[in-house]
Amino acid sequence: MDSGNIAWVLTAAALVAFMTPGLAFFYAGMVRSKNVLGMLIQNVFAMGLISVLWVTIGFSLAFGGESSLIGNFDYAFGYDIAEAGPDFMAFFAFQMMFAVITPALITGATADRLKFGSYALFIAVWSIIVYSPVAHWVWGAGGWLFEGKWFLNGEVQDFAGGAAIHINAGIAALVLVAVVGARRSHGTEPMPPHNLPFTVLGTGILWFGWFGFNAGSALAADGTAAQALVNTHLAAAAGMLGWLVVEKMKAGHATVLGACSGAVAGLVAITPCAGFVGDYSPVLIGLIAGAGCYLALQVKEVLRLDDSLDVIAVHLVGGLIGTLLVGVFGDSEVNGRDGLFYGGGIDLLVDQFIGAVSVIVFSGVVTYVIAVAIDRTVGMRVDHDAELEGLDQSQHAESAYQA
């Protein structure tokens, strides 16, 4: 990279770093008041723990070497990162922010009931043995999805993390909810959001930061970055509209929470597509994601899963929608391979499906092993009295609001 491109990637890294406190407020507004600090610290804590693990081993496992399945120890403990040049250091910083926010996404599914220590242990192990290998598959030199190896027709296209981040975190959230179980009184006692203005604030920060998330993934201040930024905004806007239209039709009201959730659903879905589509495609992707993610909320009712803040519907389903739609709307005149609607046939769509399923299976199985191991040793969730009291007091001896 030249100095201008390095400057853009560093700026994008800062934007993505800002997304994690944005996510904290997005989620914190949706929990009950006795758990707001518990939700805030789970997200912000990831900035500390995962950053240290990233320089220690995570980055090396994700981007060291050229094997098909996992990196090596070339960059462990920060070794040789600076020596590789300022552009590589900028890339390290940018990817570190991705590694931070990915496990933080999971926290919304298990809100109100995790022991803080067990949560810390879970994301530490998960980031090393789930996130880093998947990141290597998708973006690392030699990674089998990145290189289109084995039975693929070509490379799997994941511009900024539809599979590596959103599907990965979304399936982990589903598995973790199944292991931990529902909140006490779930389904019998109302648990409304305590502060929707927090959620609106978080949505705005996420939307703003997502410009770095997606446009920064071009790794250059060029036309691809500009296209990704425009696509990001249009998909978020359309996602909001798609969610609200379906919500109004089915529930009779267009809600503030629905507007925020729809915008995030559009942002999630455009993430894998951002640098590969153009024209009117981002609007269509956003509309499909907004409507599809809202309808996916019905699935958790059928499965009786207590996904507290709809992580599965927004991130797993939204990430899956976006990953597959690359295979439909991909346009080689923008970047990458042509999808079904642009003369490329079904090859890219098939590859995107294989990539998505591979991440779901790997992340799902390994997450289950991690969660069960922790649950059967130190325990994943707080006891009955601590849950009734709330995480703010029982886990942190603090209160967000004074009487």
Task: Tell me what you see in this structure.
- It is built from 14 helices and no strands.
- With 403 residues, the protein is mostly helical.
- The protein has a single domain, classed as Ammonium transporter AmtB like domains (Ammonium transporter fold).
Biggest sheet, open or closed, and with what strands and sense? none
Radius of gyration: 20 Å
CATH top level?
Mainly Alpha
Q: Roughly how many Å apart are the termini?
A: 54 Å
Number of domains: 1
Q: What class would the helix/strand composition place it in?
A: mainly alpha
Number of helices: 14
**Helical amount among residues, as a percent range?**
55-70%
CATH architecture: Orthogonal Bundle
Shape: globular
Uncertain ranges: none
Q: Strand-residue fraction?
A: under 5%
Give the averaged pLDDT, no decimals: 96
Name of the CATH superfamily:
Ammonium transporter AmtB like domains
Q: Give me the strand/helix succession.
A: HHHHHHHHHHHHHH
Kindly report the CATH topology. Ammonium transporter fold
Give the number of DSSP strands. Answer: 0
Explain briefly what this protein structure is.
The protein is an all-alpha fold and 403 residues long. It contains 14 helices and no strands.
Label this structure with key terms.
mainly alpha, 0% strand, Ammonium transporter fold, 67% helix, 403 residues
